[in-house]
From TrEMBL:
Name of this chain's protein: EF-hand domain-containing protein
Stretch forming the signal peptide: 1-26
Source organism of the structure: Ideonella aquatica
Positions of the EF-hand domain: 49-75
InterPro entries linked: EF_Hand_1_Ca_BS, EF_hand_dom
Coiled coil location: none
Alphabetical UniProt keywords: Signal
Domain of life: Bacteria
Entry annotated with the keyword Cell wall biogenesis/degradation: no
UniProt xrefs under PROSITE patterns: EF_HAND_1, EF_HAND_2
Length: 85
């Protein structure tokens, strides 16, 4: 029986996949911990699109988005300064 690279590649991939699956099944809490700790400590909130759409045309223009981002950045800086005092 001759074993070629054509036979070894799928077999080695299957072994690696089975090993990873076995690790995840053996310790599902570890996978949850990795994803939970990977999140930023202060996750951004969902944007209020109606508040950003100031002209109420149903679309967010570049100017509206820029104004919103500048206002949010200013608000964030003011909040940070107020809490650090």
């Amino acid at each position: 029986m001759t074993i070629s690279i054509r036979h070894l590649a799928p077999a080695s991939f299957a072994v690696a996949l089975a090993t990873l699956a076995g690790t995840a099944l053996a310790n599902p809490a570890a996978a949850t911990e990795r994803t939970a700790t990977a999140a930023a400590p202060t996750a951004p909130t969902t944007r209020d699109w109606q508040r950003i759409d100031t002209d109420r045309d149903g679309y967010i223009s570049a100017a509206e988005m820029q104004a919103y981002l500048v206002a949010e950045q200013t608000r964030s800086r003011n909040t940070t300064l107020a809490t650090s005092r």
